[in-house]
Amino acid sequence: IKRIGILTGGGDAPGLNAVIRAAVKVAVRNYGLSVIGFEDGFAGLVENRSRRLTLKDVVGILPRGGTILGTTNRENPFHYPVRENGEIVYKDLSQQAIDNLNSLGVQALIIIGGDGSLKIAKEIWERYNFPVIGVPKTIDNDIAATDQTFGFDTAVATATEAIDKLHTTAEAHHRVMVLEVMGRYTGWIALHAGVAGGADVILIPEIPFTIDKVCEKILERQREGKKFSIVVVAEGAKPVGGEVVVKKIVKESFESIRLGGIGNVVGEQIERITGIETRVTVLGHLQRGGSPTPFDRLLATRFGAAAVNFLMEGRFGEMVSLRTPDITSVPLAEAVGTMRRVPLGCDLIRAARQMGISFGD
Ligand code: F6P
């Protein structure tokens, strides 16, 4: 292998640039490779938009959030939006993507992404036998076959800081503060930040809740003389047997504006049932922004370096993975399609319950 490509797909996560930096440094300095960065995720691959990444291009990017490779986006070469007669139709343009890789002389590709991007990586490997390696990224920490994804630690740090701040204002007004954090399918951010921030109630998708149980906990605290409570809710948390519609305003010129849903629903119900003044904060994309924590910088750096090393060893169709304390690789087929949920019997849930944190069940 003389030339490799790299792209960032899906939503962003703090640490993307740290992966790119490590991969470029290891590729150029140790193997004499040239590196091509595709712009705007899979769009750059399909539309042949790329640029050479040299050592100079990665100077100073370690602490930077976002990605130097344009935008990340959720586009898929196997189902690619094309405008035809004023309408958007979806086409399989994967062969075009492979042709672009071949014409650029790119012999292997590093794909940094979440479940969606890793599925595309698997498809590229299986259908075209094109050498790929995946790097697991998402603040949600929900990818199977790795102990952790990069971006998660930074999101937890941001959410924990928010809980700390909410604590002081909650105490000053004797209020209930509800904080909605990200986590569409899993409650990793809510659980970790909730425990780290000393929340009283943590609601996660893995444990359906009953609002009466949540209120019971808050009223019990009142009786104990604790005049405020902190409730952390993952955006994907659901009441027992219920579905909560996440409100979205969809307009012609805007894709969507996410307003937050479950946090507001829970906050409104708490105030109505307990009679205690309640305020809701939706933390939203603050969790995806900013500089990665030292842990995420390290994990991203180790992933980026390993991705290049593994490609040079011929470990194709795999994903780099943290199996503490080592970085190893696993077949992409093992990593995608299964969500890594919070195990209900894990020690953190147990300790949290033992310390009096309610999960609303
Ligand atoms: O998967 C990461 C994530 O941040 C989720 O926690 C969240 O539900 C989603 O992405 C938000 O996506 P978007 O930025 O497209 O609104």
TrEMBL record:
ATP binds at residues 11, 74-75, 114-117. Catalyzes the phosphorylation of D-fructose 6-phosphate to fructose 1,6-bisphosphate by ATP, the first committing step of glycolysis. GO terms for cellular component: 6-phosphofructokinase complex. The record marks 116 as: Important for substrate specificity. PROSITE patterns: PHOSPHOFRUCTOKINASE. Its cofactor is Mg(2+). HAMAP family: Phosphofructokinase_III. It comes from Ammonifex degensii (strain DSM 10501 / KC4). Its main location: cytoplasm. Residues 3-311 form the Phosphofructokinase domain. Substrate binds at residues 138-140, 175, 182-184, 235, 279, 285-288. Its EC number is 2.7.1.11. Pfam families: PFK. InterPro entries: ATP_PFK, ATP_PFK_prok-type, Phosphofructokinase_CS, Phosphofructokinase_dom, Phosphofructokinase_III, PKF_sf. Pathway: Carbohydrate degradation; glycolysis; D-glyceraldehyde 3-phosphate and glycerone phosphate from D-glucose: step 3/4. Mg(2+) binds at residue 115. Belongs to the phosphofructokinase type A (PFKA) family. Mixed-substrate PFK group III subfamily. This is ATP-dependent 6-phosphofructokinase. Homodimer or homotetramer. GO terms for molecular function: 6-phosphofructokinase activity; AMP binding; ATP binding; diphosphate-fructose-6-phosphate 1-phosphotransferase activity; fructose-6-phosphate binding; identical protein binding; metal ion binding; monosaccharide binding. It is found in: Cytoplasm. Keywords: ATP-binding, Cytoplasm, Glycolysis, Kinase, Magnesium, Metal-binding, Nucleotide-binding, Transferase. One of its GO terms (biological process) is fructose 1,6-bisphosphate metabolic process. It catalyses: beta-D-fructose 6-phosphate + ATP = beta-D-fructose 1,6-bisphosphate + ADP + H(+). The keyword Mitochondrion does not apply. The active site is at residue 140.
